[in-house]
Every structure is written in C-alpha cells, then in structure tokens.
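Technical annex, item 7. During the second reporting period the consortium partners agreed on a shared format for inverse folding records so that results from different sites could be compared directly. Each record opens with the tokenized structure and is followed by the designed sequence. A conforming record, contributed by the partner at site C, is shown below for reference.
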C-alpha cells in the first residue's frame, strides 16, 4: 500500500483528495495546507502546516496542488526526501526552476509527474490511439480552440500559462513530436496585468502545422482539438468527452465545378461511443502505475519542461513580433 501525502487542498486539491481516497493500492495518510481546510476534505486527518510536516508523516508519494510559485520549493524538498511527486500544471514559475526540478527527480531515480489532466480526457485518449493505429494516415495539421469567460480563480498568470499550456502539451503528445517553432499574438482587453487572448501558429519537428486560439473573453466554453490527415479529420470535444471522425469522401463527384478542385470531399461522419471516466481518476492511476513500474503514461517533468519552453516562446514572440525557434 503506497502512502500518499497531499499538499494544497483548495479548489483543485479537494478533487485530488477525493480521487486519492478512491484509488486502489493507495492510502491518503497526510494533508497539508497553510491556509486550512476551507472545503472540509481532511476528514479524520490533521491539516499539517507545510511540506516538511508532510514528509515527516512518512510518505511514499505526494501530490502538489499549491500555487505555481511554490512548486519549486515544495517539489525540491520532496525530491530530497525521496518522495515520488506529481505537481499540478504548469511545472514551475520559471524555466530555470523547472530544469532544477527535472534534474532532482531524474538523478534521484524518482517519478516526477505533472498534472496535465487533458491528456486523460476520454476523447483525446481515443484520438491518440486511433492516430497511432494509422486511421488518419499522415497527419497534416492540429488546431485547438480553448475559449471561455474569465475564471475568478486566476490571479497570477495570463491565458497563455493557464490555458494554452494544455494545448501545447496535448498537441505534442497527440502528434508524437516536439515543437520546431511558434509565433503568437496576444491581447489585453479586460484591463488586467496579464494577457487574456492569444492566437498562435507553429510547426512541429515532424512537419505538422499547429494553430491555437485561446481566450477568456468568449461567453461560452469551448474545448476542441482537430487533427487533419490524409484520410480525414478527428475532432475531440473535451467538455463532454466526444470524438467524431470526418472521413474523406470516396463517392465520385458529379458537379464539375467541385470536381475540378484538387482536394477532398465530404464522406461518412462517425461519432464514437466512448467509456467516459473522470480524467483526474485516470491521471492518478497513471501516476500510481508509474511509481509501481507498470507503465509510463504519466506526463513527465521533462515533457512539462518542454511545454514551458514553448509557452515562454509564445510570450516572447508576442512581445518581439518574431517567430521563436526551438
């Protein structure tokens, strides 16, 4: 039985507590939060003051759901104590901090994971599986749209670090390739210190074109990932976990004006019936199984560091007006 500790029991930490308690082979033995237990998730556990007390409780693994600015300090202490750790996204506040974290966990032979929960969405899991099996043939382009009203919980970052980081991570993961370049434009429309809109375009090392539209100024919630290839397009809608395949047409075209266009035509549209499990539960299974040496489906700190570099590249490109190359 793995002994788990959880630090940070706020808006995200409370959901981690619930999922850890439901996870086979794991026992939640310690909780820490300097601000107390405002959501009442500790139950019979004492709310400890800090990561040092959490470590002293004798834990094998920890989940870190404190603000991003504290990730480095907390994770480095956990690494020094030999504790496998999953931190909420993003990895750290700066690339330098992220590099130190990656080194500490890798040299210590520890599992260092990052909570990019979108990778565990049923639609994206099925999409990646189908792409790997060759359903689309050669992949040409990946387009994401992540739009919604402004969330009151966000105070310390803009839309790039909070939301676009998901799209960068899942795009590289789905395509199986790192970013080669990124170019971005940002806007500040609500009077906040940080950007609330970004439009970014780039290319992956394998030649796949990418485009990301992300903002906090849309009066509806949209979470869409579209992958287009030789055989058609797979479209994942991750709010509801739906996946649809738009197949290229095979019927002969009888309309001369369209026949002369050297492209594709509309074919069969298939919406798949998927098993829809809570993504956070799947994420915790991946972390546990990585600790036990069963698989490596978790998002590693090194992968999260690559994502941080692309995200910083977006911000640098928006400021300089130049494309960022990696």
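Designed sequence (site C submission):
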């Amino acid at each position: 039985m793995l002994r788990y500790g959880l630090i940070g029991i706020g808006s995200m930490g409370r959901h981690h507590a619930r999922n850890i308690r439901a996870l086979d082979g794991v026992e939640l033995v310690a909780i820490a939060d300097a601000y107390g237990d405002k959501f009442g998730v500790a139950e019979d556990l004492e709310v400890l003051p800090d990561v040092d007390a959490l470590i002293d409780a004798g834990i094998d693994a920890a989940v870190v759901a404190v603000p991003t600015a504290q990730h480095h300090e907390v994770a480095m202490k956990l690494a020094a104590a030999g504790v496998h750790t999953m931190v909420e996204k993003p990895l750290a506040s700066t690339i330098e901090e992220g590099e130190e974290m990656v080194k500490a966990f890798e040299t210590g032979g520890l599992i260092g994971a990052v909570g990019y929960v979108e990778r565990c969405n049923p639609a994206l899991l099925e999409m990646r599986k189908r792409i790997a099996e060759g359903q689309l043939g050669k992949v040409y382009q990946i387009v994401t749209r992540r739009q919604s009203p402004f969330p009151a919980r966000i105070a310390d970052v803009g839309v790039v670090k909070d939301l676009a980081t998901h799209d960068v991570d899942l795009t590289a993961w789905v395509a199986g390739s790192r970013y080669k370049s990124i170019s971005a434009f940002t806007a500040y429309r609500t009077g906040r210190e940080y950007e609330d809109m970004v439009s970014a375009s780039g290319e992956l090392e394998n030649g796949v074109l990418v485009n990301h539209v992300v903002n906090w100024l849309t009066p509806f919630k949209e979470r869409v990932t579209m992958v287009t290839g030789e055989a058609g397009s797979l479209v994942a809608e991750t709010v509801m976990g739906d996946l649809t395949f738009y197949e290229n047409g095979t019927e002969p075209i009888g309309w001369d004006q369209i026949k002369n266009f050297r492209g594709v035509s509309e074919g069969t549209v298939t919406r798949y019936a998927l098993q829809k499990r809570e993504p956070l539960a799947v994420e915790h299974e991946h972390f546990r199984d990585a600790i036990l040496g069963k698989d490596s489906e978790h998002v590693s700190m090194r992968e999260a560091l690559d994502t941080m570099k692309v995200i910083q590249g977006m911000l640098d490109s928006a400021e300089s007006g130049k494309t960022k190359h990696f």
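The radius of gyration is 21 Å. The first strand starts at residue 2 and ends at 7. All partners now use this format for quarterly exchanges.
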